[in-house]
Amino acid sequence: MRQMVVTEALNALSRAHREVLTETVMRKRTVDEAADALGIPVSTVKSRIYYALRALHVLLEERGMAT
């Protein structure tokens, strides 16, 4: 059940936010490696990670999953 809720929340993120989380969390790439893979500046990756995690927290909180 928990995995399904997290998957739904991730799917509710913008494409850009999902991409940076996929590169850094799921593929375990550094910010520099993610920037190279996505063809965007390192500062953009850092910013998107920050806002993606904030949005994910809100989405999980709405679903009763945030701590």
From TrEMBL:
SUPFAM superfamilies: Sigma3 and sigma4 domains of RNA polymerase sigma factors. InterPro entries: RNA_pol_sigma70_r4, RNA_pol_sigma_r3/r4-like, WH-like_DNA-bd_sf. It comes from the Bacteria. Residues 9-56 form the RNA polymerase sigma-70 region domain. It holds the Pfam family Sigma70_r4. This is RNA polymerase sigma-70 region 4 domain-containing protein. It comes from Actinoallomurus oryzae.
